[in-house]
Amino acid sequence: MSELCERYNVNVIRDEIHMDMTLRDTKHIPWSEVATTHWALITSASKSFNLPALTGAYGFINDGHSRAAYSHQLTQSDGLSSPAILAISAYIAAYREGHIWLDELRNYLSDNLNYVAQELNAAFPQLNWQPPQATYLAWVDLRNLNIDDDKLQQILIHEEKIAIMPGKIYGEAGEGFLRFNVGCPRSKVELGIQKLISALRKLC
Question: Where is the Aminotransferase class I/classII large domain (predicted)?
Answer without folding.
Answer: 2-195
